[in-house]
Design brief:
This protein is an alpha/beta fold. Helix content is 38%, strand content 24%. Pfam families: HTH_1, LysR_substrate.
């Protein structure tokens, strides 16, 4: 199997267009088609559906794509090992992360990474939706929610407990709740994504249901209302870390319940042949998240 053909396959999978792939590779569209045919012959499988207007991956092509990327990354790593070039990480780093984590912890560290590694390119997708990182070619996905996909490699980056918090002005006017029962007399704010608050008690998780005074479909809205003194919110430590440090919000501790411990995870399509750009990014992010540790 020719690695040049594998590289061509990856570019065609990204562009879904013979002309665009040919332009990126400095080849003719006819040559791209010929090399693809050779790769399909080597593998004994059809990798693309071809029509006069479009090109799309077959199921075999989708299955081969992560292996193709691993092969090209392994070649790149081998070249780096035996190269005198000390320009640092290189290539395209594709990352998907929740909006809040991305804005507060990832974006601030990227300028330095790019300055110190002039050959690296970064494609950052900030979204609270769960994406198919293998199918869409991401190197790493950052997650806060409990992990469910056993096909991915999970790497824990930091603790990130759910905590109760409110503004100093709200607590001054309404008092500080000391127990779960006392929450019922307070104005509570929550995101639309959760129907109840979760806590830990004697090693077991318990749910607290309530009628919220305010609901918003994103964390930023709830955090803003909480800072403005509208009530109590349960958010993760990462969501309100800056506000806690600045005294704009105060963490509330209950006597009969403990915070529900979550974590921030990096999900990887594979542990094998991780490019240097991925390990560099993860090390930088782990350092950025150190402030969340107790």
């Amino acid at each position: 199997m020719n690695l040049r053909d594998v590289e061509l396959f990856i570019v065609l999978a990204e562009t879904c267009n013979f002309t665009q792939a040919a332009r990126r590779l400095g080849m003719s569209a006819m040559s791209v088609s010929r090399h693809l045919a050779q790769l399909e012959n080597d593998l004994g499988a059809r990798l693309f559906q071809r029509t006069t207007r479009a090109v799309s991956l077959t199921s075999e092509g989708e299955e081969f794509l992560p292996y193709a990327r691993t092969m090209m990354e392994a070649e790149q790593n081998a070249r780096i090992i035996f190269s005198d070039d000390t320009a640092g990480a290189s290539g395209l780093l594709k990352v998907t992360a929740p909006t809040g984590i991305g804005r507060r912890f990832i974006l601030p560290m990227l300028p330095e990474i790019m300055e110190l590694n002039p050959k690296i390119k970064i494609d950052l997708n900030l979204s609270d939706d769960v994406v198919d990182i293998i199918g869409q070619g991401y190197d790493v996905a950052i997650r806060v929610a409990p992990l469910k996909d056993s096909n991915l490699i999970a790497h824990r980056l930091s603790s990130n407990p759910r905590i109760l918090c409110a503004s100093p002005s709200y607590l001054s006017s309404n008092g500080v709740p000391a127990t779960l029962a006392e929450l019922s007399i307070h104005q509570c704010l929550r995101t639309a994504m959760v129907s109840h608050w979760t806590f830990m008690k004697e090693g077991s998780m318990l749910s607290h249901s309530f009628m919220p005074r305010f609901i918003c479909n994103n964390v930023e809205g709830v955090r803003s209302m909480c800072k403005a003194g509208a009530g109590i919110a349960q958010l993760t430590k990462a969501d309100v870390h800056s506000e806690l440090a600045a005294g704009e919000l105060i963490e509330i501790h209950l006597s009969d319940a403990e915070p529900h411990m979550l974590a921030i995870w990096a999900l990887l399509p594979t542990k094998r042949y991780l490019p240097y750009r991925v390990t560099l990014f993860l090390d930088a992010l782990k350092s950025s998240l150190k402030s969340l540790s107790p």
